[in-house]
Structures are given as C-alpha cells and as structure tokens.
Design goal:
The complex is a heterodimer of chains A (164) and B (334). Chain A is of the alpha+beta class and 164 residues long. Chain A is built from 5 helices and 5 strands. Classes of the chains: A alpha+beta (164), B alpha+beta (334).
C-alpha cells in the first residue's frame, strides 16, 4: 500500500440494508460516519470512550460500540442502527413499543443505545430474569436512572419477541 | 487524534510484514476497545494501524479443545470464549474472568490477544497533562502522591504504581498458559508468566514482545485442577467495573487435602500476578479457613499501601480466602 498519513480512505458501509460509499478520514469512528456523513443521528454520542453505551449498534447482529470502531473497520459488515429497527411499514419494534409503554426514559438520550442493546440482550438469551437483564444491560448507562422501567420494558419485549 | 494510515492484513505473516515497515510507529488493531480509546485521548499515537480482524478466518478465530488443553485463537472474542461450553465446564475460572470483565458490547468486540495486552486505567496515564513514567518516560509519577485508591500494592516501584486491570490474564497465569507469537524474527512460544514485565525503572516497557510481534494463539494445559477453578472479583459496583481486588484460584483436592493450588491476584498488582508462595502454604494440607488465611497473608506479605489504597492490604487477602473457600465447595463433575 502507498497511502500517506492524512489521505482519505474509501469506505463502503452497509447500514440498515443500504450501501453507502464514503470518503473518510481514517480517524473517523463508525459513530462519526453514521452521524456526520450518513445523516443517521439516532445513534448518540455520549462519552465517546466506550463507557456509556449510548452509541450501541449491531454489527452482523451483535451489539457493539460505534464510538470505538474506526469506520473503515466496519466495511464488509452489516450495520444496524436504531433507524433500522422498525418495520418497513413504520411499525415500532416490540422493544421500542415496550420502552414507551413503561416510560423507560426521561431525557431519552441514552434510549437508542438502550434499545439496540436490549434487542441483542433478548436475542442472546440473556433476558431470562430481572437479575440477568440488569447484568447484561450494564453496559448502557442512564443518568436519569430510569433503570427499573428499562428492566420492565425489556422483560415485556422479551415475551413479545419470543411470541409468548 | 494523530493522523494514521490504515491497512488490512489478510494473514499473520502479512500483518507482521505490514508492521515491520515502521515497527515503532505501528499498532495492530482487532477489537479496538482499548486502543481506540487511548488514541482519542492522545495517549497512544500510532502512525499506522494494521487491522488484523481478517486473521479470524485463518484459524486465529477458533477455539480448540483437546485432552491436552485449550488452544485459543488470538482473534476469538471475549464473549465467544466465555460462552464456550467446554470452557465453562472444564475451565470455569477462564469463563468467569471473561464474563466479569467489561460490558456485553465490549465483550463482543474485544479479542483475547488484545485483552491480555490492555493498558492500565491509571487516571494519570490516561490524562496527558499529568506526569507519567509509563506514558512519558522520565516525567515522574503523579500517582505516588496523588489519588491512588485504585493503584497497585504489589509489584510497584518508585517509578510506577499503576494497576494491571485485566481479569482474563489472572486466569491464564494461574493455569500456566502460554502465548504463541509471530514477529519479524519468526515464531516463538512464551510462558504467559514471562509476557508482562514489572514496572521497575522502565514502566513504559510493559511486555517482552518486540515491536511488530503479534500474539497468534493462547494455550492452556489441561490438568486435574482446572475444573475446580474460580474467579472472584470485588469492585465498587456489581457489573461493568474494574476490580479493586480479585483472585483466580484453581484447586486439585483429594478429599479435604490440597494436592495442588493455583492463586493469581487481580486489581492489586502492576502486572498479572501469581502467588506461588501462598500456593506452597496450602499444598499437602487440609483446606480450611485458617489455612486459607495463612496462604492469603503470605500472598500479601510484600504488599505496600499508599495514602488511599491501603484498604487493599485487608481486602486483597479476604478476597483470596473467599475465593479458595468457594472453590473448595464447588460442585465439580468428574
């Protein structure tokens, strides 16, 4: 390779089943690419250091932190953000519905990350008990402390996602 | 963040070749959970990133379990190793240490090879306006007279008291693991216990790895002690927090009598820490609380507290005692 420092990199990202061709500074995180280059601002920048979970997205179906992934590293993987969660008809995902039903937020800033993390938590089979939900949602901080409502929302959505 | 070039390696030799062009200025990147954070802070300033994630497809993403032990590809993610049925059953200390580290998102991202090379969370290392011998050799140590509640009490020097925070490494050193590497001078195998260096007068040199040398596999030998193994982590909050004190223990028992004991200490030392003298206290004796306390006291005999971390001189030994007693009463299938 003959790249020099400061050169842009061409990155092809698959986000919510659409392909985006971007020319990015190699320093751009996946979070910055989503928000500043693609215009998907649902994914939030909280701490930007992997401590709060507000930037949680799915990479090939697994929950990850978009702030700690350089955008170039996401090429070849399927990214799903909060904008890609609802059905094509706009119907809310059961987890989104459950967060509304249980008033599982106050300011709402952590909510997209909470919801993306919660969907993965259920799919992983880690939402069987309230203790499990608390443990496996510990990577998502809520400074408004809506935690009891979040746990209740995840438990409700789990039942619906699993068709119970 | 300092500008860098980015390139993807397709296999281990390719990665080593790419890094070899500018070894001191290059960093391998896998999960990036530690590296990207420290690059944003300006603590780590590589000029070239070599993305090694594709190595997962060349055998370095596999977990092999044989009668001889485990062979873990360096690109295996924490979450995958933690959930592996044979590791949970036969090497619970590894599964537990991984489970108690970081958050679910980070465990999905972080590679095992990267995990063991994670840098300290010392706040004076993280914030570039402070003196720090680890980050800026010769600048001094702000932690010695600073807020050092989370700092180490074992393996410290007058140059550095930063804690090695990893959990997985304590399981590995307790189980006599090894690491396989490939570098500019070819392949080699190192005992895990030889990988990390104590700070001494050169705390910026944290491992014996050469520039451009890449960890490719981690191997853990089987033995009669691995099933009765346990990781206990004590921390300020119950999840997603680094240890104030932790103990990785493994026991081979004949009835109540200890045939073999392994003890490693987390959250209290400057590097992965094996307590060999404490193990010797237990060997050949019945394991009860008094014996565990005696061993724990030996493990911390050389510990040195500072203004804010002297509580670890009590918490550390208590953690060892509890870990040993919990391991003793584990239900272990044979």
């Amino acid at each position: 390779m003959t790249e020099k420092r400061g050169d842009a990199v061409d990155v092809r990202l698959s986000i919510n089943d659409k392909t985006y061709r971007l020319s990015l500074d190699p320093r751009a995180s996946l979070l910055d690419a989503l928000r500043d280059h693609v215009g998907l601002t649902g994914t939030k920048k909280g701490c930007d250091h992997g401590q709060c979970g507000a930037c949680t997205v799915h990479l090939d179906g697994q929950r990850v932190l978009a702030c700690l992934i350089f955008a170039a590293m996401a090429q070849g993987h399927a990214v799903t953000t909060i904008e890609g969660l609802a059905g094509r008809d706009g119907a809310l995902h059961p987890m989104q519905r459950a967060f509304i039903d249980h008033d599982a937020f106050q300011c709402g800033y952590c909510t997209p990350g909470q919801i993306m993390s919660a969907v993965a938590c259920v799919r992983e089979g880690h939402a069987g008990t309230e203790a499990d939900i608390r443990e496996y949602m510990s990577g998502n901080l809520c400074r408004c402390a809506a935690y009891p409502n979040i746990v209740a929302a995840v438990a409700q959505a789990k039942r619906e996602m699993e068709g119970a | 963040m300092q500008p860098f070039t980015y390139q993807r390696a397709t296999n281990a030799d390719d990665a080593v070749r790419a890094a070899h062009a500018r070894p001191a200025a290059s960093q391998f990147i896998a999960g990036g959970t530690n590296l990207a954070d420290y690059m944003k802070l300006g603590v780590l300033r590589p000029e070239q990133l070599v993305d090694i994630n594709a190595l997962a497809d060349t055998g370095h993403g596999r977990i092999e379990v044989t009668e001889q032990g485990l062979r873990l590809g360096a690109l295996v993610r924490m979450a995958e190793a933690q959930a592996h049925p044979a590791i949970r059953r036969d090497y619970p200390v590894i599964s537990q240490a991984l489970m108690l580290g970081a958050s679910p998102q980070i465990r999905n991202m972080a590679s095992l090879g990267g995990n063991i090379l994670q840098r300290t969370r010392c706040e004076y290392f993280r914030e570039t306006s402070w003196p720090c011998n680890k980050r800026a050799p010769g600048s001094g140590c702000a932690a010695l007279e600073g807020l050092n509640r989370e700092h180490a009490v074992l393996g410290t020097s007058e140059a550095c008291i930063a804690t090695y925070h990893g959990d997985f490494a304590q399981a590995l050193i307790a189980l006599d693991a090894s690491v396989e590497t490939v570098g500019p001078r070819g392949k080699r195998t190192l005992r895990f216990a030889e990988l990390h260096r104590l700070p001494g007068t050169t705390p910026h040199v944290e491992t014996v790895l050469e520039a451009g040398e890449l960890i490719t596999f981690i191997t853990v030998p089987a033995g009669p002690h691995t099933r009765r193994s346990h990781y206990l982590k004590i921390r300020d909050r119950d999840s997603y927090q680094f240890a104030l004190a932790a103990a990785a223990v493994a026991l081979h028992m004949a009835g109540d009598v200890v045939q073999d004991a392994r003890i490693a200490l987390g959250g209290v030392a400057t590097a992965p820490w094996r307590a060999h003298e404490a193990e010797a206290v237990l060997r050949g004796k019945p394991l009860d609380e008094a014996a565990a306390q005696q061993a724990a006291a030996v493990a911390f005999a050389d510990a040195k507290g500072r203004a804010h971390n002297s509580f670890k001189l009590a918490l550390g030994p208590q953690t060892v005692v509890r870990a040993l007693m919990e391991a003793k009463t584990m239900q272990v299938s044979t």
